[in-house]
Amino acid sequence: SQTIHQWPATLVQPVGSPLSLECTVEGTSNPNLYWYRQAAGRGLQLLFYSVGIGQISSEVPQNLSASRPQDRQFILSSKKLLLSDSGFYLCAWSVVRGTGANVLTFGAGSRLTVL
Amino acid sequence: GNSVTQMEGPVTLSEEAFLTINCTYTATGYPSLFWYVQYPGEGLQLLLKATKADDKGSNKGFEATYRKETTSFHLEKGSVQVSDSAVYFCALTQTSGSRLTFGEGTQLTVNP
After folding, report:
1. Given this model, what pLDDT does residue B111 score?
2. In chain B, positions 26-45, which contact chain A (CB-CB < 8 Å)?
3. For a Cys-Cys bond, which of A21, A24, A86, B38 suits B87, CB 3.0-4.6 Å?
């Protein structure tokens, strides 16, 4: 069966420090991978998605970046965190087959607090 | 572009009350529609889905019917439980697309 792992689950970082959140998927190959952010009291914002190794699409301009060094690994990074980067970060994967509905499976999330 | 509009929360109900969370959408073509649920401190889980007009998705006592004429996908449950307290997200995707568009989410609190 497929599983998705995200870590760390909780992170407190000072402004200006770097960030690395990691996500790995097991039990499937060539998944579509996504990073979403959920700010407090707000909905989900798609940050990045990837359809293959080294292929990253950015949805919103910001000081975050994403990389996909392996088929089932997706990393969210920042060189210098801002206060506004605080939020709940969710990794997700999907496999689109034919004309079937694109169902996303989410990880448990990483809560980032920037102080 | 695609968009999803949900009723604003928070919604507070007593146990065994009837629940409706409204969701309307704007999209070209024939999108697939979803409800996801997020329990406190957790990621999102797929609750139910519908892929074509007049389809009814159902799971755990929740139901939603894909209404193309009103571009709606309202979530309903006949008798809510305390354990249903969570944030509910309506979402859509184009059938051949790879990205979901989410609504803002609706916080539901069920009191005993």
Report:
1. 96
2. 32, 34, 36, 41-45
3. B38
